[in-house]
């Protein structure tokens, strides 16, 4: 079985650098029952909304985060992109990150939170959409401790495993992890490490499940009410 996760965060305007962070959304497929998820409701207004988006590999997190950011004025921070930028730079972490991504494993929180913090601090923006993070409970705790913000809303993009695999294999961006073996591993990692994060936010009453099957436009229309007051 395949599973996927995507994450986005939005943040509320705030005074200090770290307060600016918005939690994003994640996309993933899951075996959780619908009763475990909250659904988007009309009183989830913006501004003041902090969002976290979750979903599995290829579910469309990045695609939807880009549209959300453009439409609602967020700065889109993809942690995957931050990590890939490190690989192509002279970063001391480059080799480790490449090996980790190639295997479909998770980079340590020490590195990812450091990169996120730097991206936020060097940006002049005051609202961010964080995509594809946190992927583990350790990520979540480290992020909330260091960034100092807990998301109010977590978007969960739900898609069947076969469709996620199909989207990954057709992504055509030359990524080292866009292959069958790595994606299967990523789905296992999702189930073992990311699903607990989803459950955490479900229990906190912050999870919003979005059906990620359909066209990009159709999915965006399902997301839109969350950002529209
Ligand atoms: N609703 C959709 N239907 C079909 N393909 C999609 C859809 N949304 C995104 N894609 C495509 O699927 C691939 C993975 O999308 P991406 O946004 O990178 O997902 P993720 O960030 O969750 O891994 C891309 O090639 C993208 O163009
Ligand atoms: O918080 C994160 C985000 C990404 N990754 C690594 O980067 C890869 C690609 O992540 P990305 O979000 O770009 O993938 P997507 O889900 O969009 O396909 C993951 O499989 C991990 O190896 C990580 O370790 N921690
Ligand atoms: Mg992505």
From TrEMBL:
This is adenylate kinase. InterPro entries: Adenylat/UMP-CMP_kin (IPR000850), Adenylat_kinase_CS (IPR033690), P-loop_NTPase (IPR027417), UMP_CMP_kinase (IPR006266). Transmembrane segments: none annotated. PANTHER family: NUCLEOTIDE KINASE. One of its GO terms (biological process) is 'de novo' pyrimidine nucleobase biosynthetic process. Its EC number is 2.7.4.3. Gene3D superfamilies: P-loop containing nucleotide triphosphate hydrolases. SUPFAM superfamilies: P-loop containing nucleoside triphosphate hydrolases. GO terms for molecular function: AMP kinase activity; ATP binding. Belongs to the adenylate kinase family. Keywords: ATP-binding, Cytoplasm, Kinase, Nucleotide-binding, Nucleus, Pyrimidine biosynthesis, Transferase. It comes from the Eukaryota. It catalyses: UMP + ATP = UDP + ADP.
């Amino acid at each position: 079985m395949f599973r996927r996760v995507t994450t986005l965060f939005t943040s509320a305007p705030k005074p200090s650098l770290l307060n600016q962070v918005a939690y994003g959304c994640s996309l993933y497929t899951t075996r959780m029952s619908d009763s475990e998820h909250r659904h988007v409701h009309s009183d989830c207004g913006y501004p003041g909304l902090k969002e976290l988006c979750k979903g599995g590999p290829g579910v469309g997190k990045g695609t939807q985060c880009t549209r959300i950011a453009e439409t609602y004025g967020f700065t889109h921070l993809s942690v995957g992109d931050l990590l890939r930028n490190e690989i192509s730079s002279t970063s001391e972490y480059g080799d480790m990150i490449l090996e980790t991504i190639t295997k479909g494993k998770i980079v340590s929180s020490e590195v990812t939170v450091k990169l996120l913090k730097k991206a936020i601090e060097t940006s002049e923006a005051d609202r961010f959409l964080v995509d594809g993070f946190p992927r583990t409970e350790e990520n979540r705790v480290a992020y909330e401790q260091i960034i100092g913000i807990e998301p109010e809303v977590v978007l969960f993009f739900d898609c069947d495993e076969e469709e996620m695999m199909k989207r990954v294999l057709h992504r055509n961006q030359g990524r080292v992890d866009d292959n069958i073996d790595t994606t299967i591993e990523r789905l296992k990692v999702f189930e073992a490490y990311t699903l607990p994060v989803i459950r955490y936010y479900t229990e906190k009453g912050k999870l919003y499940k979005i059906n990620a099957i359909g066209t990009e436009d159709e999915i965006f229309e399902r997301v839109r009410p969350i950002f529209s007051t």
